[in-house]
Structure formats: structure tokens, C-alpha cells
Amino acid sequence: MMQNVTLVSMKNITPVILICLLCSLAPVISAAELINTKTPKLVIVTIDGLRWQEAFGGADEKLLNNKDFVSNIDNLTARFWNTDKQERKNRLMPFLNNVIGKNGVIIGDRNNDSEMSLTNKQHFSFPGYNEIFTGKVDDNLTSNAKILNPNITFLEWLNKQVGFENEIAIFSGWDVFPFIFNRERSGLFINAGFENMPLLETHSQNPKAQDAAAQIKLMNQLQAEIPSPWETVRHDALTYGFAKLYLQVKQPKVLVINLGETDDFAHDGKYDAYLDSAKQTDDYLRDLWTTLQNMPAYKNNTNMIIITDHGRGNDAIDWRHHASKQAVQNYMTALSDFEGGIVGSEHIWFAAMGPNIKSQGLLKTTTELSQTQFAATALALLGIEVSLYDVAAASALKGVISE
Ligand SMILES: [Zn+2]
């Protein structure tokens, strides 16, 4: 599973198939050059614990009006509530619903026959990100502890393939990400938790580089000065800001951004801050997409895919939490009153947009789609058959990639 491979094309990237065939006959074009010029770029955004209920339905009336979770109900209502469901969606995540939801694919709106779940038996983050980035479930992962992941993610594998070395960058607000991607072994570029962002060296005449150095210094300083509400997670503004600067200066082929505020504000029982973060996350998606379309290296050549690591409970008693029946008996004993686990925390959502993504809108499903299918979908968008990475990984999502 670890041998170097050249690209294997998918059906819909005809020029890549053609050039692959040509280079196998007459290897004048190196694999690296082929990937540089033809392979679409990929941007992955993972959002921690943002429920499908808000993503596709806007503010939840029963939580919005609960003074246990909202400090100023009038203020929050004025900003996020409307009796019309479409208007509610517009107020919270307009880019997701109106732009991706029309020009791309969205999955997971369980009120409209679209269903997707995680498959791991824990329903919390480390096993979830492992599932997303390996396409498989590892039953031995039963905590969020900082343990070097024994599993090889598809990004670690990709980082060793011709043309992708050092072309992948991962940004996360959570300080466990270097362990999920086993940075020691994988050699992946990861900036996570409260790590300073290194000043970026570039050999090109990129005018962004000079500006970026000053901005990185300032953001590193602010990161040190602004207290985070959490011990292990920084504010998304820092994660997104660092990722955007990296994108503009280094122009990687694969960029991963993990946003985490939604999960932590939910755990804190702050529904107001959770909604503000969801709205800001939507603004980041819009800004990211606009930024990509204003860069020649990415314009019309970049697919963006989005997924959540887990869902949460549905009601006032349990929306803050997420855990499986197995997890509440072991790792999450603080939730042991919920004997069956947190019902609904297995429900996740997915969205995608780009030149190789169908203009489908909501994808209705007949069977539950799985978080394990993300890895193969991501690789397919890079023109790579998932079996080259791992024959045990689940197949790509059907109905997402254009034929
Ligand atoms: Zn959580």
C-alpha cells in the first residue's frame, strides 16, 4: 500500500487519462509535471460537531429560547430567528445553503430524505477524524488522548507520492491534530492548537509573501495575547487566518482546514456563541471560495469538500453532547446517565462544490451514507483510485462527482 504510484485517472478527467496514456507510452512528461498542470486542487474543510439541524435548518427554536443556553434571547432572536425556514437558513449559513446547495452537492438534511452517519463506535472526534482521513473504522481508537495514530491517513500516503510531496498543508484549531496525522511519521505540514505559524519561505516572486510575513508575525502575537476559552483549542479566526496566508503564499495542491469553535461552544452550553461560530464558519467558506477564484492557480480548478466529524443530541437535555453507547460506558463516563449514548450524535453532513462536482443540490439518499466514504471521494477528485491507497477503504460517495 505504500509504493509510489503515478496518477490513475477517473473517468471525468479526460485530459488526464489521455496524458497518462501518452506518458506511459512515451515518458517525456514527468508525473510531477503532469500533476502540476492538470490535476485539480483540493480544499478540505472539516467542521467539528456542527449539527445538520442548524446547517440545513438555521437556528433551533427550542434552544434559541432557552435561557440556560442564551444570555440575551431578544438579541439572538433578532439576528437568527424567522418563522420562515428559508429565511432562517439565510440568516445562519447562506453560503452553504444558497451557493453550495445550488451549484454543488449537500448531504445530510435528515428532514429531506438525505442521510449520512459516521460508522465508528465512539461518536467523538479522534475516531471521527481517523475515519474521515483513512476511509475505515479503527475500533482500537477509543479516546481523544494525544496518542500517535498508528493508522496511515490518505494524506500521509499522498505526501509520499510523486508530485504531492510537501504539497499538502493541514490547519486545525485543536492541538490533537498532529497526533491524528502522526506528524512525526508522516512529515505532513501541520499547524494546530496554539502553535505559532512559521514565516513562509517562498522561492517564487510571489508579492503576497512579503505582506504575509508581517501578518503572520502579528497573528502569532495576537494568538499569544488573546486568551482562548479552551485549553486545547484556539479560536477559528487564527486557524483560518493562518491557512489563508499559507494558501496565498505556498499554493499547496491539497489544503485542509479544521474549524473547532462550534463543538466547544456547544459543550460549554453557549447556544448564542455556537450560532455566531456557525455563521462565521459560513463566512469563512465564502471567503475561502472567493479567494480561490481570485487566484489563477486555483480558479475553476479547485474542488472544495466539507464534512463534520460527528453530530450532537437533539434536545435541551443533550444537544451539548455527543457520544455512543459504548463511549458513555468507558471513555465518557461523565455522560453515563445517557445509557444509550447521545442519540443522533452519529448523524453528520457533507457538502462539495467545484469543477468536478455535480450541480445537484441536496442529494436524496436511499441508504445511509457513511463517513468512511470521504477518503475515496477526496482521492477520486485528485484522479486517484482509492485502492492504490488502501484496498480496505470504503468506496467514494455516489452522486457527488460529475461523470
Ligand atoms: Zn466535542
What features would you describe in this structure?
The chain has 403 residues and is α/β, with parallel strands linked by helices. It has helices spanning 14-25, 31-38, 52-57, 61-64, 73-80, 85-92, 94-103, 125-134, 154-158, 177-180, 183-186, 208-225, 236-250, 261-267, 271-293, 325-329, 374-381, 386-389, and strands spanning 41-47, 105-107, 116-117, 168-172, 189-192, 254-259, 302-308, 350-353, 361-362, 369-370. The protein has one domain: 3-Layer(aba) Sandwich (Alkaline Phosphatase, subunit A), CATH 3.40.720. The chain has an 8-stranded mixed sheet with strand order 5-4-6-1-7-8-2-9, sandwiched between helices. The two termini are 27 Å apart. The chain binds zinc ion (ZN). Residues 49, 124-125, 263, 267, 322 line the site of zinc ion.
Q: What's this, in brief?
A:
By secondary structure, this protein is an alpha/beta fold. It has helices spanning 14-25, 31-38, 52-57, 61-64, 73-80, 85-92, 94-103, 125-134, 154-158, 177-180, 183-186, 208-225, 236-250, 261-267, 271-293, 325-329, 374-381, 386-389, and strands at residues 41-47, 105-107, 116-117, 168-172, 189-192, 254-259, 302-308, 350-353, 361-362, 369-370.
What is this structure's SSE topology?
Elements (H helix, E strand, L loop, with lengths): L13 H12 L5 H8 L2 E7 L4 H6 L3 H4 L8 H8 L4 H8 L1 H10 L1 E3 L8 E2 L7 H10 L19 H5 L9 E5 L4 H4 L2 H4 L2 E4 L15 H18 L10 H15 L3 E6 L1 H7 L3 H23 L8 E7 L16 H5 L20 E4 L7 E2 L6 E2 L3 H8 L4 H4 L14
Parallel strand pairs: 1-6, 1-7, 2-9, 3-10, 4-5, 4-6
Antiparallel strand pairs: 2-8, 7-8
Helix pairs in contact: 6-7, 12-13, 14-15
The structure holds zinc ion (ZN).
